[in-house]
Amino acid sequence: PPPASLFSSESSQPSSSKPKDGMSAVFQQLSTGNVTAGLRKVTDDMKTKNRADRTGAVAISEKESRVASHAFSKVGPPKLELQMGRKWVVENQIGKKDLIIEDCDAKQSVYVYGCKDSILHIQGKVNNITIDKCTKMGVVFKDVVAV
Questions:
Q1: What's the Cα-to-Cα distance from 2 to each of 5, 8, 11, 14, rounded to whole Å?
Q2: Angle, CA 57 vertex, CA 54 and CA 58 arms, to 5°
Q3: Cα separation, 143 vs 102, whole angstroms
Q4: Which of 127, 75, 76, 82 is nearest to 102 (CA)?
């Protein structure tokens, strides 16, 4: 049989006279029904979707400061060479439309860095072609092994 303390007269007293603690107190408050009685109403001006300071327009001064930081970046000397017999390096070519790599094989790779408004012709099969930080750069090739 269960212990005698379960059937004692203390449990017959109303629960409001004895404070409960832990999760039972939380469930007792929820079961009373007036859970949202102490909450305030959220008005339309308090909602983030209706905020006036979030228009989505970007100030012109921010855009100019970002463009100016790129304009002052250091540009090295233009380079088009085969390094260690395995890697073609094309760097800092600006406005060159006649860049040509002729003597290449399937074991060589091509690395293009920092070129602007240029066109590179690769005549032959190379292992891979990597293009890094180039703008308006065109690459014309016949065949490449890897993507």
A1: 8, 12, 15, 22
A2: 115
A3: 13
A4: 82
The values of phi and psi at residue 44, to 5°, are -65, -35
**Amino acid, res. 84:** M
Q: Which range among 2-6, 77-81, 96-100, 111-115 shows the weakest confidence by mean pLDDT? A: 2-6
User: Is the distance from CB of 92 to CB of 71 less than 8 angstroms?
Assistant: no
∠ CA 38-39-40 to the nearest 5 degrees? 125
- The answer to whether 85 touches 105, Cβ cutoff 8 Å, is no
Q: Of 97, 117, 116, 106, which is closest to residue 144 (Cα–Cα)?
A: 106
Per the structure block, which two tokens stand in for 28? Answer: 């007792």
> What's the whole-number mean pLDDT along residues 2-14?
57
Per-residue DSSP letter, 11:
G
Whether residue 119 contacts residue 95, with contact meaning beta carbons closer than 8 Å, is answered with no
Distance, CA of 116 to chain centre: 26
- DSSP assigned state of 25: H
- For residue 102 the two structure tokens come to 């002729």
4 has a pLDDT exceeding 90: no
